[in-house]
Amino acid sequence: MGVQSREWMILIATTWVQAFTGTNFDFSSYSSTLKSVLGISQVQLNYLSVASDMGKAFGWCSGVFLMYFPPWAVMFMAAFFGLFGYGVQWLVIKEVITLPYFLVFLLCLVAGCSICWFNTVCYVLCIRNFPTNRALALSLSISFNGVSAALYTLIANAINPDDDTLYLFLNAFVPLFASSLAFIPILRQPALQLLSTDAISRDSFIFIVLNVLAVITGLYLLLLNSLSSEALRARILLVGASILLLLPLCLPGIVCGRNWAHRTIHSSFCFDSSTFSLVNPDDLDLHKELIESDQNISLSVSPFFVTNKEGLFGKVMEKGRLTVLGEEHSARLLVRQWDFWLYYMTYFCGGTIGLVYSNNLGQIAQSLGYHSQISTVVTLYSSFSFFGRLLSAAPDFLRDKVYFARTGWLAVALLPTPIAFFLLAASGSEAALRAATAMIALSSGFVFSAAVSITSELFGPNSASVNHNILITNIPIGSLLYGLLAALVYDSNVRIAPQENSLDEAMVCMGRDCYLQTFICWGCISLVGLISSFLLFLRTGPAYDEDYERNRSRAQLSYTTK
């Protein structure tokens, strides 16, 4: 198998790992049962969700470990974290063993670490093996993390549709199985090679094929998952989903055949027509390490941009902003940048709030009277999160036709979130719940995927494994604050209007008031994220424009010298 074939095998392996390690997305599927078994309040249940997200606060450790250990070793560390964290929780929820609440909290923390470590391994593998197409590779790989809940629902229904505790069992063992499948491709990771312009053009076609397959997989899970309530049908659908996940394995053969055809057939003819490419040939400079300063451009962050701006707002917008993309930032330099904190606030008030919504989705559906629809709504969130992640590749597919800074796309992607929350506040219908869930999932999925590329572009690709984990420390903070707000409102309505129907010892709130105030607050917070993203776009837009013009000039020069 050639070097290029092995690169594609690594990308396929990362999609497998991502597809089966988004175990935090199925929390809503078993949270009500866990709450009942432990006999805890909604606030205490929220703390368990926070503990899982707190694992991301230790994500920087995985970046450090990757500096000293191979990716496969860190991947199996993550797998065993998950095996222990989720496995013991499964024993608790099956009432095989009894543990105090504090130890269950620590188990959730360990399980959360596994998710973040898996993600970091996949990010690093994509960045290392596809430096010229890293945004496309990242968006494709990360997108499959969004289908985890749908896949786990399918597997659980294929085994026993009536047993919610199966999710914890699957969370423990399936990621280990996926890691075993991905081990050989990752172990045989090829050395970094410089690619020709023709090679990049040919790779663009393969990315299109992979994205088409990904869309088909997402539509399959979205449209047919509702039919999986019976075990037999779920097993048939699971076979189909497995085939779709294995179908990209044909790529290495396609790569070898394409290379053979290029050597034996294409070399006999001379084609002067332009080739189709999703990336600019000048991005090869990133292959060689980073952008070369051929025009003596300073890569440092200047106190004021060269263009004089009048007024206080203009000076504030220019102060300390990034002038060039791709400069490496250490952690110490990162936290001194205004652009980083605008970016942090955008993620904190935009993407993270969508994740907290998914954690509370089980209780939200139950409180609105749609308890039987929980798995369907969770699958809906999972599928649209998947499509949102795929859409994060739009800037790369459209860059030659409609150029727009990636931070601008981020601002556009955050628009549906406040609309969705205010829709939920205005209506408690099932249609409103489904529509809002789809919008929030689409928006947050885009943020989760695009953020890795934006971190790499703004603060350097070589530092991305550490810097991105610093960025996502906002997730446990947001999970705590937003989740605590929701839990306090939920429990206060239980005490005001206690319900007769409850799940064992757990307090259950029914009615729109359980989350009404929460939706209004979350909608206002998401507006803050939208404003922050717009300010980030205004500050970083000139740097993206300069980079685009520089790249276009180099591409034209490269074309004329052929």
Give an account of the 3D structure.
70% of the residues lie in helices and 0% in strands. The protein is built from 26 helices and no strands. The chain has helices at 3-19, 27-38, 42-54, 59-65, 71-93, 101-129, 134-143, 148-159, 166-187, 197-224, 231-246, 251-264, 284-288, 311-318, 331-334, 338-349, 351-359, 361-367, 374-391, 394-397, 406-413, 416-426, 430-459, 464-471, 474-496, 516-560. α21 (406-413) runs antiparallel to α23. It starts with a helix and ends with a helix.
- How far apart the termini lie comes to 31 Å
Average of pLDDT = 79
What structural class results from the helix and strand content?
Answer: mainly alpha
Largest sheet: none
What is the ordering of alpha helices and beta strands? HHHHHHHHHHHHHHHHHHHHHHHHHH
Query: What Rg do the Cα atoms give?
Result: 24 Å
Q: What form results from the Cα inertia axes?
A: globular
